[in-house]
Design goal:
- It comes from Batrachochytrium dendrobatidis (strain JAM81 / FGSC 10211) (Frog chytrid fungus).
- The protein is an alpha+beta fold.
- It has one domain: Gcn5-related N-acetyltransferase (GNAT) (Aminopeptidase, 3-Layer(aba) Sandwich).
- It has ten helices and eight strands.
- Strands 1, 2, 3, 4, 5, 6, 7 and 8 form an eight-stranded mixed β-sheet that branches.
- Helix 1 packs across helix 3.
- It starts with 8 loop residues before the first strand and ends with a helix.
Length: 261
C-alpha cells in the first residue's frame, strides 16, 4: 500500500541565501559545461532581479527545489556570462544550418529582446508545480513592463532536458551472466537476432512534461548532445537504466507564451 505524504511548498523571490541552491539547479541544465557558461554569475544575476523570478522550497528547507526565471540576454549583452551563453547556444545549433542562422539573426537584432528562461527543479518534484510558477512569471513580466523595466521580450529561449531510450547496460550484464551460466552447464541455445531500431524510429522524451507543450509553440527546435565524460557517475547511472540524456533548444515567440500557461 502506497503512503501519501503531504508537503507544503513555499513560493519565494530568489534571495542571496539561495545562491548555492540556484547554482545547483542551473548545473542540471549544462552538466559538465556548467563552468563554461558561468552558472555562478547567472545565479548572482537571477538573485539581483527583484521583480522577476521565483523559487520553491518545501517544509522550511533552506535550498530551493525549483526555479523559474527569465533573463534579458539583449539588455545584459555586455555581461561575460551572457556572452558565454550566447556563444554556447550558437555553437550547439551549428549543425542545424537554418536554425543556426535564425538564432544568430535574433541575437544580432538589438531592437528585439531575447530572454533565456531557466526552468529547473529537482527530479522528485511534482510536475504540477510548474503551472503556478509559469502563471507567476507571466504576471511578474507584465508588472515589470508596466514599471518600464527591461522585460519586454520578442522571443523566449528554453533549454529543455530530453532523453531517448537505449539498450540498458544492466540488461547486457544480466545477459552476459546468463550466457556464462549456460556455457558452464554445457548447453547453449542458438542466438536470437534482435531487431535494431533505426535512428529515425527512436523517439525523444522530455524529463519535464511541460516542455512538450512549449515545443508545440516553438518556432525553433534544436537538439544537441551533452559533452561526454565517460567517467561520470551520473552518465553511467543513466546508461544503466537504458537512458541517453541530451538537450533541446526551444525558441518561442513571446506572443505564444500565453498559450503555454
Amino acid at each position: 500500500e502506497k503512503e501519501t505524504v503531504d508537503v507544503d511548498f513555499d513560493f519565494n523571490d530568489p534571495k542571496e541565501i539561495d545562491f548555492h541552491g540556484i547554482k545547483t539547479l542551473l548545473q542540471q541544465t549544462f552538466v559538465e559545461e556548467a563552468d563554461r557558461v558561468d552558472v555562478s554569475a547567472f545565479s548572482d544575476l537571477i538573485i539581483s532581479q527583484k521583480s522577476v523570478g521565483s523559487t520553491v522550497k518545501a517544509d522550511g528547507n533552506v535550498d530551493p527545489y525549483a526555479l523559474l526565471t527569465a533573463i534579458n540576454m539583449t539588455h545584459h549583452a555586455e555581461l561575460a556570462c551572457v556572452q558565454h551563453l550566447r556563444e554556447y547556444l550558437l555553437e550547439k545549433s551549428r549543425k542545424n544550418t537554418n536554425a543556426h542562422a535564425t538564432l544568430e539573426r535574433l541575437f544580432s537584432n538589438k531592437n528585439e529582446h531575447l530572454a533565456i528562461v531557466f526552468n529547473e527543479r529537482l527530479i522528485n518534484m511534482p510536475p504540477q508545480i510548474s503551472l503556478p510558477m509559469f502563471k507567476m512569471l507571466a504576471e511578474e513580466l507584465e508588472w515589470a513592463q508596466d514599471e518600464d523595466q527591461p522585460f519586454k521580450f520578442s522571443h523566449l529561449i528554453f533549454i529543455s532536458k530530453v532523453y531517448k531510450e537505449v539498450e540498458s547496460t544492466l540488461d547486457k550484464e544480466i545477459s552476459t551472466i546468463d550466457e556464462t551460466e549456460i556455457q558452464a552447464n554445457g548447453s547453449m541455445p542458438a542466438p536470437q537476432k534482435k531487431k535494431k531500431m533505426k535512428k529515425s524510429e527512436t523517439p525523444m522524451f522530455y524529463f519535464q512534461p511541460e516542455d512538450e507543450l512549449i515545443e508545440k509553440y516553438a518556432e525553433l527546435s534544436i537538439d544537441y548532445k551533452l559533452a561526454q565524460k565517460q567517467s561520470t557517475d551520473s552518465r553511467r547511472a543513466f546508461h544503466d537504466l537504458g537512458i541517453m540524456p541530451s538537450r533541446r533548444i526551444l525558441v518561442v515567440k513571446m506572443s505564444k507564451f500565453c498559450n503555454i500557461i
